[in-house]
Amino acid sequence: MAPLVLSCRQEKWQSYGIVAKGKEKEVSEMELRNLTEKLVWQRLDEVLKEQEAEYCACEQCRLDIAALSLNQLPPRYVVTQRGETFSKADILEIQRYVDVVAAVTKAVNMVKRKPHHSKL
Description:
This protein is mainly α and 120 residues long.
């Protein structure tokens, strides 16, 4: 029988004792995601579209806005697709939506006042 070859990712998980032998394939299908980040990017596009003439939409400003927003919000990490589906329902709550829009709006205003580049 040929020796089992593990990816670096699988070796890392196995070194933490998370993966049992014979379950290596499952690790490669798993992915760690912050659902708050996904929600911030969605809301960022909406907020920027509403304020179209008032902001810079360059990549640097968009990344700054996302970083500032995410630093104000609690992360929501999931590992499996099943967990992501479950958590998506949780983050669609009204208060969570309002918190994300408020954080993104605040970040847009901060970056608009002090962008990391000269004003265009």
